[in-house]
Amino acid sequence: WAADGQCKSNPGYMHDSCKYSCWEWRARASSARHHLPGRHSDPAAARFEHRRKAYPDAPIDKNFHCHNWAAKGECLSNRAFMATTCPESCKDKYEDEKDEPPSKPPARTAHRALAGPPPGHREDGRHHPRCIASPTSPQKKKKRKKKKKGEPKEEL
C-alpha cells in the first residue's frame, strides 16, 4: 500500500498501521533520485536493503523473497532465520500454534459419592426445589383459547 501512495492519501491509517513501510517508501523515493552506479538496479532489492539498514529491529520483512518463503512453509521449518528476516510475512503463521485446543474435562467417576451430585440435584438424587424444570416434573404449559375467524374481539 505504501508503494501505491497510500501513505499520502490515507495517512491516518497508514502512519498508524504501516509506519515502517511509509518511512521506508519516503526514504526510497529520495534515494532513487540519487541512485549511484553499481548499486541495485532492482528497486525492490534496494528497498529491502534500505529496510535492513534503517530499521534493523523493526518487525518488518528485510528480504524481497520473504513472502514467497512464507508461502512455501519456511516460517515453521526455518523458524530462527525467518523470525528475524521475515517477521512481517510470518506473523500470522505462528499464531495458530499458540492456540492450543482446550484440554478435555476430567472423566466422571462411576462412584457418585466421590463425584458428588450433579448441579441442581440434592444428595438423595432428587432435583433441588429451586430448579425451574426437571425431567421428572415438567412444567405445565398454559393453553390459549383459539379464536375462530369472524368472532368479534372482546372489548375491555
Number-wise, the strands total 0
Give the assembly state of these chains.
single chain
Count of helix runs = 9
Backbone shape: elongated
N-to-C SSE string, H for helix and E for strand: HHHHHHHHH
Note the gap between the termini.
68 Å
Mean pLDDT: 67
Q: Over all CA atoms, what is the radius of gyration?
A: 33 Å
Content-based structural category: mainly alpha
Percent in helix: 40-55%
User: How much of the residues is beta strand, in percent?
Assistant: under 5%
The major beta sheet can be summarized as:
none
* Unreliable parts: 32-38
What does this structure look like?
This protein is mainly alpha-helical. Among the domains are: 32 residues, no CATH class; 56 residues, no CATH class. It contains nine helices and no strands. About 4% of the residues have low confidence.
List the helices and strands and how they pair.
Layout (H helix, E strand, L loop, with lengths): L5 H4 L1 H7 L1 H14 L10 H12 L11 H6 L2 H4 L1 H7 L1 H12 L13 H4 L41
Helix pairs in contact: 2-3, 3-4
